[in-house]
Design goal:
Helices cover 45% and strands 23% of the residues. The longest helix is centred in the N-terminal third of the chain and has 31 residues. It has two domains: 64 residues, no CATH class; 52 residues, no CATH class.
């Protein structure tokens, strides 16, 4: 007995990553969030030192470490998670799976879908990447 053949998708696409968004927003977000651990370590180190001269170095070290960790986590979110997202277009449905650490898979049946628009630019076509817009009733 042969296994039933799996239905092949008409098209499979994935989202496109725009590095400029990461290069602009990630340092701002990581820098702002790193103020809290850096400030906390600064206050605690000055309480322990009990000196009138502020001890800045420990706060700067904590800020630098938390900034680096924040940039790495935002890198994973910006580049690795979209690489794991796939949209598979069939004749009667759209299936997509997404998530880097927590995988989710969903199916959209085309019963109430009026139109599906697939947009691919010149640079996206070589990578089978594009934007999908689903219009429903």
């Amino acid at each position: 007995m042969s296994d039933p053949k799996k239905e092949e998708p008409i098209r499979e696409v994935q989202p496109v990553v725009v590095p400029m968004q990461y290069l602009i927003f990630a340092p701002l977000a990581a820098g702002f969030i790193s103020l809290f651990p850096g400030g906390f370590v600064f206050v605690i180190s000055n309480m322990i030192a009990q000196s009138f001269d502020p001890v800045v170095i420990y706060g700067l070290i904590a800020y630098g470490i938390s900034f680096a960790i924040g940039m790495y986590l935002l890198y994973l979110k910006a580049f690795k998670e979209p690489a794991k997202t796939r949209y598979r277009i069939f004749e009667n449905r759209l299936e997509y799976s997404e998530g880097f650490l927590n995988r989710q898979q969903r199916t959209v049946v085309f019963d109430q879908v009026i139109d599906v628009i697939l947009s691919e630019g010149v640079l996206r076509q070589g990578k089978s990447a594009g934007s999908i817009t689903i219009i429903t009733q």
